[in-house]
Model the fold of this input.
Amino acid sequence: MRTKPILLLLLLNTFVVANSFAQEIPLVYNVENTGASFPQPVLPSISELPTINPLTDPFEWSDGSGRDNSFANWSHRRAEIKAEIEHYEIGSKPVRPENITASFSGGTLTVNVTVNGNTLTLTSSVTLPSGDGPFPAVIGMGRGTGSLPSNIFTSRNIAQITFNFGQVMAHTQTRGREPINKLYPELTSMGAYSAWPWGVNRLIDGLELVQDVLPIDLKHLAVTGCSFAGKMALFAGAFDERIALTIAQESGGGGAAAWRVSETLGKVETLGNTSHAWFIEDMFKFANSVSKLPYDHHELMAMVAPRALLVLGNPDYGWLADESGFVSCKAAHEVWKAFGVPDRFGFSIVAGHMHCSLPTSQYPEVEAYVEKFLLGDTTVNTNVMKSPYGHVDYSRWFEWWGTGDPVFPKRKTGENQIIYFEPECTTIGGNWDINEDAGASGGHYVTVRPDEESVVLPLHYSPIFFLTLAFLA
Done:
């Protein structure tokens, strides 16, 4: 007769422990980078880097000494990921300078940053709700709320702050001639996704300096943007731990999408054909060997953890590589799950609308994240994982984590299929060999490279040929 009460007690204890664990994980921090004091990790040259075809393990130390998925050591591991992304992809992001001043007047926040006698000025329009505050705030890339509808924020008494990114670096930068280069002339090679997050950092510094006259709740800041500005918001949220909520809208390649996965999808924004202005030139050395990268963009997203991140996608625009974004999101979510806060990360990939235009079907997701992580309503359900990619075998990209053996999983022989295609005007991915055969249509056919376990559909090769594939997944 005592079975049910004992079972109920066990369930209650489990619930209390789980909730206590979640409450111990911070929602936001009061410093830009909690891992600033950790030493730089090993950063080998491209020739020295190992080849890792699946997605890299976010919990594996850079020196290969093992892995640690504990929250206690996440700040250190996150610092390693940060260093790798700066070194191989965007360039060094300068630390906070000593000489920063700020003022707020007439609805404009002005921040002056002086380095080596040169001053860069940021000006941001600030829209405040009525009342005394302090108010939670959203920093929009280019506009007060980015590309999200302003009423989502105004109806909830959330302040809007515009980040005028051109005051730091132009959308299509001229290397060495941008405003930030006057402060750091030695960093002429830096990419825009190093410069723009630096600008957001300095804007938040300014908010801290004027908090006596500008009533912003510094524990409840969000960043958002769409497309190239979606990448901007993602990098800003990843690199500044004072940001409580990041909403990256339709960020595509170089944003939420993983370079490795995008490489398998055909005509999408891959590492080799993204904008050179946004990244360092050295990154393009990986254009034909993305599997040499010691990280991927699921780890860029993971840098936001344990804070909140919502990724929005639009599969109507193939260039955005949203299937890659989906796989990358599923991989990144493993980090939040490991820390016991899975509800702080979500994604919504929905078709049927214009690029950077939030459809009504995505309002609930955005509103839920805003209410929970800017307004503190813990009753809101933020377990959001919406996409059209239910058929995609995403787990094959990270099943190897924790094994020390970075290979794709073998599937059962009974799952193999032989499929015949006749594609036109196509290009072949790196996992395939082109072979000649007079009996084949166009005289060519392709096979899986013998050293690869990944079988990813090769796309776009001309002339016309018949393609025989043995799918292992």
About this structure: The two ends are 49 Å apart (CA to CA). The chain has a mean pLDDT of 88.
